[in-house]
């Protein structure tokens, strides 16, 4: 269950690689009102994309915070 704001992935070329789309819904799941990605000049960008590299960064931040609490 995901405690994040999810994305419906409508017309998103990277939806299947984004955790905000692939994560399982929580009991009271929140979603973006509008899909946050956009295409300009034929280039797709999304400031909210959460791929494998982002998961790694997120885990590193959690580890750092846990170390500081010790």
Q: What is shown here, in short?
A:
Helices cover 31% and strands 14% of the residues.
Description of the structure:
This protein is 31% helix and 14% strand. Helix 1 (19-22) links the parallel strand 1 (5-6) and strand 2 (30-31). It starts with a strand and ends with a helix. The strands form two sheets. The chain has a two-stranded parallel ribbon with strand order 1-2. Strands 3-4 form a two-stranded antiparallel ribbon. The protein has two helices and four strands; from the N terminus they run E-H-E-E-E-H. The chain is globular and about 45 Å long. It has one domain. The protein has 70 residues and is of the alpha+beta class.
Secondary-structure topology with pairs:
Blueprint: E1 5-6, H1 19-22, E2 30-31, E3 38-40, E4 43-45, H2 52-69
Parallel strand pairs: 1-2
Antiparallel strand pairs: 3-4
Strand order of the largest sheet: 1-2
- Estimated share of beta-strand residues: 5-15%
**Integer tally of domains:** 1
Class per helix and strand makeup: alpha+beta
Tertiary shape: globular
